[in-house]
């Protein structure tokens, strides 16, 4: 007993030393672990987001002294018919791209999961492939497909007897906007197939088996079992896709640069051109458009939340 | 599932085959067009090249200065990947497994970025980079990426690390291990599956980034491969040497293709981890 307590007393200063050392170590570790990343996030992430509000109140070309003009940029923006045209194109993409991506990937995922064909795991991987290609590669690939003189699309149409006579799909205002939908769908489906396949495999097989016993066909099973149980994940995917479609500008930039005659301009690209374009350098005005986009994005998220109620099914 | 095949199954099978073809065919088409001569190229889309002109790849390599471009890309992607993954791992560990004052505040500020679309920050970010003299510099791009928003990877790794038992640190501490040792010898090895997933997705993301390099790099000697092949396509309007451009596009595809083939299992599984982000 006495022996024990004596060792304890002698250990006491050591222990406090050790504790001190440990707390010093912890401080150093935390400094290394938190400061660069969190500081960087504050500087390169949060700060620019806050500054975009301020910039939208300036008349500024980035070089001369900025001039505070209040809400003038916003007034100009609401009278700018090109902003509204770009927004209309965004709405077109929002209505088409997410719909096609979701419809195609639900169908493909259903076929891969529930039909038991051979080689489905290989197909799942293959379908994902376009998702690992860069936007530049996907865009150029489709630019080649749409080309008038050597394009794959015209050649395919010729095979089935439609001669487009060297029609440039991206060069004509009538078809350019629609032609931008397939590349986005093509490049986007794979990810959602994988997401949906994984979600579908968690649905108990017994549900399908009893449905088959009761004579339910493919369509009944898809619409009565699979889709209702998938609603939460489809909902999240829809929000993600709609917001993503609103933000995109790089594919349009690469494929058409908003042309011909502005027929494919989208709001992100219009903002980009206002800020970094060859003729104009209007950081204030571009920031105002950016703020507008921010408001639309929040609005779109709320709208999708409302349109697709978050129902949870139990099984 | 036991079920009889019907005529419908043929249709469904055709649907699957059609989607597979829509992916394979354009890619294969670009490859075989890239092996033609320019004359053959304009004659007929369908004919196969008479002789395989691998020389197109050589001229693409020289004309588009792919050597320099690939070195730039390697520097940008490699440095961002290594430093970024390391910092994210450290950060995820500290934020999920350590107790300190202000942790909750830091987390909620980080979570805030999930609500920010980011696109409206493009211009202030550019001004900031310009004021810090980080434009037209690959190192600047690395700094922006490494210190920028990594919330998605942070959440992925944080979730992974949280699932490890808490007793690990406690018993290591009793044995007298320092925090640095605990992190490098215990946590990192155990979190490796998560770290690898993050690294693969970082690679794909960085290699495929177009907008930032496009905005920030002005000297063509600093271009990354994506920007380079975009500019090559723009110039093509005047030169009409399409087979060389096709070869360039195929070369651009190769790194993604290799990583995809080697890591497909990780990628396809990791993709769903990412979907939790919403």
Automatic annotation (TrEMBL), chain A:
Keywords in alphabetical order: Cell membrane, Membrane, Transmembrane, Transmembrane helix, Transport
Localization terms from the record: Cell membrane
GO biological process, alphabetically ordered: transmembrane transport
Cellular component terms (Gene Ontology): plasma membrane
Transmembrane segments annotated in the record for this chain: 28-47, 91-113, 125-145, 184-201, 283-304
CDD domains: TM_PBP2 (cd06261)
Entries under Pfam families matching the protein: BPD_transp_1
Main location as per UniProt: membrane
Domain ABC transmembrane type-1 stretches: 87-304
Membrane topology classification: Multi-pass membrane protein
Domain of life: Bacteria
The family this protein is said to belong to: Belongs to the binding-protein-dependent transport system permease family.
Protein name as catalogued: Sugar ABC transporter permease
Source organism per UniProt: Paenibacillus aurantius
Automatic annotation (TrEMBL), chain B:
TM stretches of this protein: 12-32, 73-93, 105-128, 140-161, 182-204, 242-263
Pfam families linked to this entry: BPD_transp_1 (PF00528)
SUPFAM superfamilies membership: MetI-like
Membrane topology according to the record: Multi-pass membrane protein
Broad class of where this protein is predominantly found: membrane
GO CC field: plasma membrane
Annotated keywords: Cell membrane, Membrane, Transmembrane, Transmembrane helix, Transport
Coiled coil: none
Domain ABC transmembrane type-1: 70-263
GO biological process: transmembrane transport
Subcellular location: Cell membrane
Keyword Chaperone: no
Superkingdom classification of source: Bacteria
Keyword Transmembrane helix included in the entry's annotation: yes
Family classification: Belongs to the binding-protein-dependent transport system permease family.
Protein known as: Carbohydrate ABC transporter permease
Organism: Paenibacillus aurantius
Lineage of the species this protein comes from: Bacteria, Bacillati, Bacillota, Bacilli, Bacillales
